[in-house]
Amino acid sequence: MNDAMVEKNKKDFRTGSWFSGVIINGILILLALSVIIPLLLPWFFVFKTRLECSYNPWSLPTQIRWSNFAEAWTAIRIDQGLINTVIVCLGAIACTVPPAAMAGYIFARYRSKVTEVIFYLILAGYFVPIQMVLIPLYKLCSQLSLTDTLPGVILSLAAFGIPFWTIIYRSFFQSLPGELAEAARIDGAGHMVTFFRIMLPLAKPATVLAVLLVFIGAWSDYLLSLILLNSQDRFTMQLRIAQFLNAYGVDHMPRYAAAAIIAAAPTIILYILGHRWILRGTLAGALKG
Amino acid sequence: MKKRRWLLFVGVMALVVVLLAPVYAAPRVKLTVWGRDLPDEQADHAYIRALINNFKAKNPDIEVDYIALGDPGLMDKTKVAMANNKVLPDIFQTWGGSTMGGYADAGRLLDMTKELKSIPCSSAAQQAMTWKGKIYGVAPFFAIAGVFYNEGIFKKYNLSIPTTIDQLEEIAETLKSKGIQPFACGAKDKWPVLALFMYLTDRSGGVQVFNNAADRKSRFDNPEFIKAAQKYQEWVKKGYFGDKPLSETYSDAQQLMATGKAAMQISGSWLCAQYANKEFTDQTIGFFAFPEMKGGKGKITDVMGMPDIAFAVTRTAANKRAAVVRFLKYAMSVEVCQAEPGRICSVPGVKARNPLTEKASNVFTQAKEIQFWWDQNLPPMVTTPLLDAMQNIFLPNADLKKAFTTYESLVEEVMGPVKK
Amino acid sequence: MDYDILLGKPAKDKSRKKQMREIIFFKIFFLLPAVLFLAVFMYYPIKETFQLSMMRASGLGESVFIGFENYVRLFTNEEFQSGLINVFRWAFWSVVIQIPLSFFIAFSLVAYRNKMTNGLRAVYYLASVLPSAIVAMLGRFMFAPNFGIIASISRKFNWIWLDKVDFLGDPRIAFWSVFFVATWAYIGFYIVYIMANIEQIPVDIREAAELDGANRWQYAIHIVLPIISYPLRIIAVLCVVGSLKLFDLPYLLTGGGPGHATKTLGIILYQQGFVNWQYGKAAAVGVVIFLLSLIFTVAQFSWQRKEGDIG
């Protein structure tokens, strides 16, 4: 479980021909290229004028023009939406991760018939397609005066995120060695102290993963915010981008591609910065499933 | 260390509580308007920009909160809001017809007949905003369906505007032999398929074919519809729509027209601004009315149309009638409508800004019978299924009779069987 | 510290009864946030949806109770039937194609580890973080009939056989084109997840295998696969439940067409509810998705129980 052991497990194979190594490495590179190349496609369009793009979509641009980016950028007015998006993301993290961690801990460590039943009830939440409850959800939010407020979006997002992360935390806490918690209990620590001082710090990889992925999920949310938010000044970035993309349609391909790049950039940058943690988090969180 | 972690946890929970507290805005009188396009610099958004910005400047006493929701966004959101009936915009952009009628029947809209009746407007546009004798809004722009064609290509191959469907077929054959796709359509998006189908049905059987079916005097799988569908499918099989018609989107179709790879497109006049814009296309594109069929009942003056830009008023505006009327009258003023580069204006006295719009306007003014775009004239429960049935025309092995019979049974479920 | 009162004194000083009470209190306190969230924002809407599925409801005006009529109409409807078939096909092929492919990549990354593959593992996950609207857009850039890159390249080199293929418009091929894009976007998570599990296998097991003369792929099939069968099944559950809910990629790429070739239950749900104003029917589709996921997962978990805990 600990890093040293994982390191040891990573030791190389001694046998095997160099030839199979070359072939496998070749295949791996090809597959990696097939992930990366499509990501580069929009760059063919963004420097062109509309006509250039219509006639020669896949030629190299003859001239580097940043105007499409500039126009997409000003039309989206990302700054305003950005604050709302960040609030939604942070709120979603705050409302998803702690309840999921706490519930997952109980399901893993304090199992009983009752908690198993509750676990299955929460698991059932994972099966709900969001479109199925959209209208009742909207009705509910308007009864609670939550329509057109960011908390409405945050709480709904959290409700849809909690089941998945409860499952992940449950499997994670199950995989942690029990001795540590028992030792703490013998030392006289209460249940809560054990959780906060011993178990939660041990679950850090799962928490990092949850925080990052909930962030990315909330960042990309479109449908819930579209339905729940009404006023322009509460719109999130994703809504502003969608406003832009929908309004222009694909008939202004260069500008459309520029907007798409702007839309995807934050998640990709975040991923590049955080991929070590995401990979490590998934790695550790994946124990036993 | 342990204290800090505890504090962090409390902090997170406190943040939750703060975020939970709903933000209540102080009540203020203002007009909330939901529309499709952003009021920005884009050429085809010129009208909405002029309307919103100038109205704000000229009416400092009215606060306008205009929200652009994009294409599926506007309709999805309006629908959920109308169903919930709590938070409604005062004014929303609509395409009139039965969708608007559905809202009106459910009591979500405000009867504005008295205030709006006198606004100068083409009768087709006013008709479109009328449901069961009451006017619920205005349609400053009206769109008609016709044939866009590439004048350069027609000239090059000595083709002239067809007056019969047989001539149209000859033209298509010539174009095909020259390696040019005769028609651009966009069948992937389903709704573009309808325009040609409406005309094929009308030109052979007249406007009554659809009207009777919609009034439940005849079935949707009656021979006239099947005949039109079979003609359409024959064209598809002949390759008039290219070899991959079903993955062509509506915007792909526009690209084909813009680059001269396709020579004709049967669609709505909202494309005029686009096709007259030299930044979008270097081809010269013209417009003609869909030709007649030899021996058919339909006339060249039967034209399919629907509102292009229209606004309707909801019940929440009941106590702001004066402000709403000012907004709608301004929306219908010559001054604002003149900003629009390409759509056909329903306000008298507004000149077309380019030759393409002028050609389309001529078709519109010569029209004797305006039939509303079918999917605007049927209840929303059966409009998309109609388009689904129609997409079958593009499937080479589809049994059209069966597709329309399936559709008819759905219509019976929703609108009742044919009355004898 | 003041929270000692809340947490209770150390366990050994307590009577058993008091301890039990404390544990129950602790359980309730910890489960409450999650349960409250779900109760309000999930179960209440679900309850409404179940009720709605028994009504004829357009969203506007009165709803009429009609019992199971919506379900009867759905199951006799050709569109729904093809949706159901597509979803099961999709689930089957994701399990049969995506999981073995992920396993192959994950195992190769572990077994043929070098500097380069270490860099590659970050790449595979990249597509999984993109919003599906962007994924769909990239998919269209690939497959679009005229300006798509495949069409353009095949025309340039005069590969008529490739130019003839209508990736999104041919009913026989569209399913696979969408499936290809989905595989591209989804397997990143599976790869990382499987890789993590392979790396947890103690090194002694591998050394023993090597002593027996097993090569990498014999080791992979005879030793690694059985050990990680539990996580693989978790992925299988995710795949199947994901297929049942599938909406955005096929909707954005093909709109469910041509015909019903790529219709999924998720698309039918959306169209019935948001386009056709048939709330009752939409709710019924939702209930079907929900129940199918539930049945599948319960079956999967109980099958596992019977086999005992592996891995």
Characterization of this structure:
Chain A is 76% helix and 0% strand. With 289 residues, chain A is mainly α. Chain A has a single domain, classed as MetI-like (MetI-like fold). The longest helix of chain A has 33 residues, at 253-285. Chain A is globular, with a radius of gyration of 24 Å. Chain B folds into 2 domains: 31-143 and 306-360, 3-Layer(aba) Sandwich (D-Maltodextrin-Binding Protein, domain 2); 144-304 and 375-415, 3-Layer(aba) Sandwich (D-Maltodextrin-Binding Protein, domain 2). Chain B is built from 19 helices and 12 strands. The radius of gyration of chain B is 24 Å and the shape is globular. Helix content of chain C is 75%, strand content 1%. Chain C folds into 2 domains: 3-52; 71-307, Orthogonal Bundle (MetI-like fold), CATH 1.10.3720. The two termini of chain C are 42 Å apart. Chain C is built from 15 helices and 2 strands. In chain C, strand 1 and strand 2 form a beta hairpin. A two-stranded antiparallel sheet of chain C has the order 1-2. Chain C has 311 residues and is an all-alpha fold. The model of chain C is unreliable at 1-9 (pLDDT under 50). Chains in contact: A-B, A-C, B-C. At the A-C interface, helix 1, helix 2, helix 5, helix 6 and helix 7 of A face helix 1, helix 2, helix 4, helix 5 and helix 6 of C.
Search tags:
heterotrimer, A: 289 residues, MetI-like fold, globular, disordered N terminus, disordered C terminus, B: 420 residues, alpha/beta, D-Maltodextrin-Binding Protein, domain 2, 2 domains, 19 helices, 12 strands
Secondary structure layout plus pairing:
The complex is a heterotrimer of chains A (289), B (420) and C (311).
Chain A: H1 3-9, H2 18-40, H3 50-55, H4 67-76, H5 78-109, H6 113-125, H7 130-143, H8 150-175, H9 179-186, H10 191-202, H11 204-220, H12 223-228, H13 237-248, H14 253-285
Helix pairs in contact in A: 4-14, 5-8, 5-11, 5-13, 6-8, 8-11, 9-10, 11-14, 13-14
Chain B: H1 2-20, E1 31-35, H2 46-58, E2 64-68, H3 71-84, E3 91-94, H4 97-105, H5 113-116, H6 123-128, E4 130-131, E5 134-135, E6 137-150, H7 151-156, H8 165-177, E7 181-184, H9 193-205, H10 208-214, H11 223-237, H12 250-258, E8 262-268, H13 272-276, E9 285-288, E10 302-313, H14 321-331, H15 334-337, E11 344-345, H16 355-366, E12 369-372, H17 374-377, H18 380-391, H19 400-415
Parallel strand pairs in B: 1-2, 1-3, 7-8, 10-12
Antiparallel strand pairs in B: 3-10, 4-5, 6-8, 6-9, 6-10, 6-11
Chain C: H1 3-7, H2 16-52, E1 55-56, E2 64-65, H3 69-75, H4 78-111, H5 115-126, H6 132-143, H7 149-156, H8 160-164, H9 171-199, H10 203-211, H11 216-227, H12 229-245, H13 248-254, H14 265-275, H15 279-307
Antiparallel strand pairs in C: 1-2
Helix pairs in contact in C: 2-15, 4-9, 4-12, 5-9, 6-9, 6-13, 9-13, 12-15, 14-15
